[in-house]
Amino acid sequence: MERDYPELKLENQLCFPLYAAAKEIVKKYRPYLDEINLTYTQYIAMMVLWEEKSLSVKALGEKLFLDSGTLTPLLKSMEQKGFVTRHRSEADERVLIVSITPEGEALRKKAADVPAKMQSCVRLTKEEAVQLYSLLYKVINDVG
Amino acid sequence: MERDYPELKLENQLCFPLYAAAKEIVKKYRPYLDEINLTYTQYIAMMVLWEEKSLSVKALGEKLFLDSGTLTPLLKSMEQKGFVTRHRSEADERVLIVSITPEGEALRKKAADVPAKMQSCVRLTKEEAVQLYSLLYKVINDVG
DNA sequence: TTAGAAAAAATTGAGTTCAATTAAATTATA
DNA sequence: TATAATTTAATTGAACTCAATTTTTTCTAA
Lengths: 144, 144
Hints:
Chain A is mainly alpha-helical.
């Protein structure tokens, strides 16, 4: 008896457009981020650092949903580029503190027009964007 | 003069929850897919193959938004596992045809309960899921 | 106080992703 | 027809991601 399995059709998945949209959007960032010598993952790490100035790898990982397996090489590369420094906490030697450098701060100005350039790529109305944002955070917070 | 740069705050980005949600969802699949010896990318490739039975690498790539750099090693691995075969088209030797095997077909039955298991992880209402689906495809189709 | 548990990063290995290039086959054109 | 352009996969290299393990440090409890 041949079954149809509609639940296994690609077009009936919610995960697939999520996966595909994320990938395509990140790809869109590339030319803009190339100009400021950042990858997408480095870019979101810099967003945290522009706000926080200094925090532990663990704290950064919680904000970005990334672990040390991803962050250790990422932060070493960003240190090489001069955007951050890495040093152990004196209070607790297990903790590695990542801090923004003046070069990292300076990058903020150059990055300031990236969000606007990206917004023009994603042609959603303001309402749609707000709705999408809200649904995505619902997914993130629910998937516990 | 110190600026605030709200447009560069992580919580004001649309791309970040998209990136994070996609990552978290794919991670959620892992235990279920481990049981049927597939990775997430292999799983979506199988979804296409369960429908199409046979198609070119190019056609598969267009459906999945993936190129040969990703698909070539992926399909070799799936061939190793016995789920697909790979052979050149006789009409056009440039084209590599991927075809599902009986083992690949048999996997469909085992995969049939994966979508239901995942749906219980993502606690959106039916209406929210429909809305999210629609917005995501809008993003995918717009990002040209 | 000291052994054991817990916490934080780093490391390792498998797999994914993409840009750029290469190789082979096919199609188009001069 | 012969050459050039195009198409399709494969390859290469850089980067990301995560699970699992290891190392170091700190905390806890006997």
